[in-house]
Specification:
Blueprint: H1 2-26, H2 30-65, E1 67-72, E2 75-80, H3 84-92, H4 94-125, H5 132-145, H6 148-156, H7 164-177, H8 180-191, H9 193-199, H10 201-212, H11 216-224, H12 229-257, H13 263-272, H14 281-306, H15 312-349
Antiparallel strand pairs: 1-2
Helix pairs in contact: 1-15, 2-14, 4-8, 4-10, 4-12, 4-14, 5-10, 7-8, 10-12, 12-14, 13-14
Length: 350
Amino acid sequence: MSEEMSKKKKLTKEEKQQLKQLKKSAKPGKLAKRDAITGILFISPWIVGALLFLAYPLITSFRYALNNIRITPMGMNFEFVGYGNFTQILLSESDFLTTLIDYIVSTVVSVPIIVVFALIISMMLNQKIKGKGFFRLIFFLPVIIVSGPILGMLNAQGAGSITSIDTQAITEAIKGFLPTALATPISELFENMVTILWYSGVQILIFLSALQKIDRAMYEAAKIDGGSGWECFWKITLPNIKPMILLNLVYTIVFISNNDQNSIIGLIKDAMFSGTEEKGYGYASAMAWLYSLVVLLIVGLFSLAFFAKKDVYEKQVKRAKKAHKKEQRQLKKIERRSARNAKKNAKAAA
């Protein structure tokens, strides 16, 4: 009886030690808590800014969209109409719907071309060539110099497009092979190749920063194993820059959507400042909300199309969560076992 008691006591001591170790590993340490507090303090200005300059305007604009607003000497006069503004836009605003469809088609066609062009240029600039910094400056300089109004003036004078003589053969070939709905925006892209160069400066720098973080030893090992340049791109370069591709896709969509040259922005401004009773701030807010939903839908479709599978980082996070849950289950099992052993020891002692 005494031998059995001693074995049980020894077993409970070992279990208590394991229990303490598991509790220590499960609880976040002081350093982790301090890092978490420091991180929250660092991002707190952005949180406050998002609440003031993003959340509040969104709520206010949605409130405007549900009302007919008239500007009077006493201020704004609100007349609640519910979803009447949205219904009127969808049923009777043919110009807005036509422009919105044109925007969707041109965005779906132009965004991948701009991102692919930026990726090709960034890979060329990432090579060991003389004057690499000078070429980077050339591609990024239009982003600094050319603003929205200046770009509008250049486009009005025809400086943002290539002459029709240079692009006539290309556009005719495109229209011969593709349907009109796709051929028109693609041919316009070829004619506005200068504008694409202006739009791709930031994306080139983002891709360059991602390419320079890839370990060169991976390419050297692939070449030793007989890997070609194409295989290195698909198996090394592309998986490492996937997050930046998504970032550039979202950035390009948002940039095109908020650009001053976007005709939908012009329609929203015209509705906002029109003197008619039917339109105004409420009507323009409803148009802006419909436009924002379309932009969000395009961003979501691009994200699903290009990143249906989870990347390596997400897989690592999922594995870490599974390991943490397994550790918690083991901790509970040891607690139950130690409680049962304690009861048995108490009964045996009695």
